[in-house]
Amino acid sequence: MRVLFIHPMPHPSLLILQKITYHYGIGILSAVLKQHGHATDLMTMYRVEQPKIRKKILDFKPDLVGISVTSQQLELTQEIADFIFDEFGLPVVLGGVHPTVRPEESIKIRGVFGICLGEGEYALLELVEAMANNDGRRPDDLKIDNFWFKSDNGLVKNPIRPLAEDLDSLPFCDREILDFQKLLNYHGYLEVRSSRGCPFKCTFCVNASYQDIYRHKGRYYRVRSHESILAEIDDLVTRYDNVNSIVFDDELISVNKKWTTGFFEKYRARFDFPFNITVRADLVEKELMQTLRDAGCNMVMMGVENGDEYLRNTILDKGISDRQIIEAARIIKDTGIKLWTFNMVGVPYETPETVEKTIQLNRDIKPDIVFISTFYPFPGTKLGELCEKEGWISDRKVDGFFSNITVLDQPSITRQEVAFYNNIFPWAIMYPRLSLIIKLLCRIRVARDKSLYDTLYPLVKTVYEVYHRFKVSLNLLPAFFSRKPKKSRR
Ligand code: B12
Ligand code: SF4
User: What is the atom index within ligand 2 of the atom nearest the CA of 305?
Assistant: First the structure.
C-alpha cells in the first residue's frame, strides 16, 4: 500500500522555520509502515497549493492520505482533506494532537474518512493492512483500536489501545521521508527523542489531557534504553554528513536523574557532539549539570513561563518557585552551560505588572537567549477550557509560527499591551532604559485613543522583525551551537 503523509504547518513568518522542522510523529509512522513493506511519501505545506498536491498524488499514486494535525492548523487541514476527497476520492485519515483532544470536531470534516486518537503506529498499520487485504473500506467492519470512522450508521468509535510499552521495539524514525541531508546541510543539528510523555500536568500543555485519555492504559512517561538512543545517533551520523550537534527534543529529559546521568556518561564515551536539552528548574542539580557539561552540553532550555509566582504556580500549575528558578540558573551558569529561557505573555489573569515581573526575573537570572511566546488557549488544556468558559476567546486564528497577537480579550490586560510586551520583551531584559523610553512614549497621547507609541509602532515592529530575523538566523542557530565538535565520534 502507498501512504501519503501531509504535515500542515503554521505560516513560516520566519522563513527559516520552514526549513527546520522534522516531524517525529510522521517519521515513526512511516518507519513502521516501511518496515512492513508499504511505501510512504510526505508533503509539508502552510497553504493549499492545489497544483502541487495534484502533481504529488498523480506521481505517487497513494491508496491512503494521512494528515497530522495540530489545533491551529485545523482549518488548513479541512481545506486539504476536502480538496483531496473531492478531486481524487481518496480516503483521508487524520491523526496527531487535535484529533486526539477534539475528536468530535475533527471527524466532522467532510473529506475525512477516519481519525486516529493518540499513538498511531500500530493503529495505522492495521488500517493499511486491512485495506491491503481489501476488507477495509466498510467502516463498520474496521475494528481498529484508536480509530474512529464515519459510517452510514453514525460514528464507529473504537476504544483506545494501551500505550506502546517498549519504545525500543519501534524502529528508528524514518528520516528518508524528506531530504534529511538537505536539512542537516542547512542547520547542522540532529533532533533525537529519548522519551514519550511527561509526568507533570501544567495547565497550558496537552500532557495533562493525554494523561487523562490514557488513564489505565499503561505508563504515560516512557524512556528508551540508553543503547537504543546511542545506536540511533550512531546510525544517523554514519548515514548523514554535516552533523555538528544534537538537540534532545523531549518534553523533559532530566526527569530520572539516574537514567540521565547514566545515559550521558555513555554518550560522552562515544560521541563528541555538543548538545542541547530541556530541563525543569526543580530538577537542576549541580552534579547533574556537571555530568551534562562534561558530556558536551552546550545549552539547556528551561521554562520560566511567568515571573509572578501566583500565576506560575496556581494558574499555570508549574510547581516551581522563583527561588528554584534563580538557583537553577545560577547552577547552570556556574557550570558553564548556556541558559535559554522560555517565557509566556498574556496568560490568563496576566496584568502589565506580572509581565514586568517576568522581565525582572529574566534580568535577574541573565539568560543567554530569551524566548517569548504569546499564550494560546489550546483545546484540551485546562487553561483552554477556562478561557472558553470565561468567554475570552474572540478569534482562534493566529498568523504564523510564533505570533505576538493574543486571541484573548481578558479584562486584566489589553491585546495591545500583550503585543507590546511581546515585542519589547528581549529588549526590556537587555536594555532596561529602552523599555522605560517606550513606556514613556505610550503615555504621550497624540489622539484620544492613540499614544505616540501606537503611531510609531509600525516602524518599531518593522525594526523588531528585522532584528528578530537577524538574531534568529545569525545568532540563535549557529551561536547556540558555538562549540564545534573536535571529532564527531569516539
Ligand atoms: C517536539 C515538538 C515540536 C517540534 C517538532 C514538531 C513535530 N511536528 O514533530 C517543533 C519544535 C518543530 C514543534 C513545533 C511546533 N509545535 Co510542538 N511540540 C513538540 C512536542 C514537545 C512533542 C511532539 C512529538 O514529537 N511527539 C512524539 C511523536 C511520536 O508523537 P506525535 O507527533 O504526537 O505523533 C503520534 C500521534 O500523535 C499519532 N499521529 C500523529 N500524526 C498522525 C497522522 C496520522 C495520519 C495518524 C494515523 C496518526 C498520527 O501517531 C504518532 C506516533 O504515535 C509536543 C508535545 C506533545 N506532547 O505532543 C509539542 C506540541 C505538539 N507542539 C505544539 C505547538 C503549538 C507547536 C507549534 C505551533 C509552535 C507553537 N507556536 O507553539 C509548532 C508547529 C507545530 C506543527 N504544526 O508542526 C502543541 C500543539 C497543541 C495543539 N493542541 O495543537 C504541543 C502539543 C505542545 C503544547 N502546547 O502542548 N513542536
Ligand atoms: S513540564 Fe513541560 S512538557 Fe511537562 S506538562 Fe509542564 S509544560 Fe508540559
Answer: 7
Of 193, 200, 248, the one to substitute when testing ligand 2's pocket (max ligand atoms within 8 A of C-beta) is 200
How much is the pLDDT for 443?
75
**Which atom of ligand 1 is least distant from the CA of 196?**
27
With a CB cutoff of 8 Å and minimum separation 6, the contacts of 64 are 1, 2, 3, 4, 90, 91, 92, 93, 127, 128, 131
- Nearest CA to 422 out of 438, 404, 440 is that of 404
- Give the position, in ligand 1's atom list, of the atom nearest the Cα of 94: 45
Distance 252 CA to ligand 2 centre (A): 8
**pLDDT recorded at residue 451:** 75
Q: Give the pLDDT confidence score for residue 460 in this predicted structure.
A: 66
Locate the DSSP E strands across 130-198. Answer: 147-151, 154-157, 189-192, 195-196
Give me the pLDDT at residue 481, please.
45
Q: Where in the chain is the domain with CATH 3.80.30.20?
A: 179-480
DSSP sequence for 305-349: E-S-HHIIIIIS-----HHHHHHHHHHHHHHT-EEEEEEEES-TT
Whole-prediction pTM:
0.91
**Average pLDDT across the chain, whole number:** 89
What does DSSP assign to residue 89? -
Q: Which CATH architecture has domain 2-157?
A: 3-Layer(aba) Sandwich (3.40)
Q: What is the pLDDT of residue 476?
A: 43
Let me know: does 417 contact 352? Beta carbons within 8 Å.
yes
Below-50 pLDDT ranges, the chain = 15, 472-487
- Residue 399: predicted pLDDT: 61
Pocket mutation for ligand 2, best pick of 193, 194, 195, 202 (most atoms within 8 Å of C-beta) = 202
User: What is the bridge-based pairing of β-strands 92-95 and 114-116?
Assistant: parallel
Q: How far is residue 145's CA from residue 148's CA, in Å, rounded to a whole number?
A: 8
Q: Each residue of 434-461: pLDDT tens digit? A: 777 877 777 787 777 677 777 876 776 6
Residue 5's contacts (CB-CB under 8 Å, 6 or more residues apart) are 26, 29, 30, 40, 41, 42, 43, 65, 66, 67, 68, 177
Just give the CATH number of 179-480.
3.80.30.20
pLDDT at 173: 97
The b-or-e profile of 175-194 (16+ CB within 10 A means b, else e) is: bebbebeebbeebbbbbbbb
8 A C-beta contact, residue 456 and residue 442: no
- Ligand 2: does its nearest atom lie under 6 Å from the Cβ of 207? yes
Which ligand gives the minimal distance to the CA of 203? 2
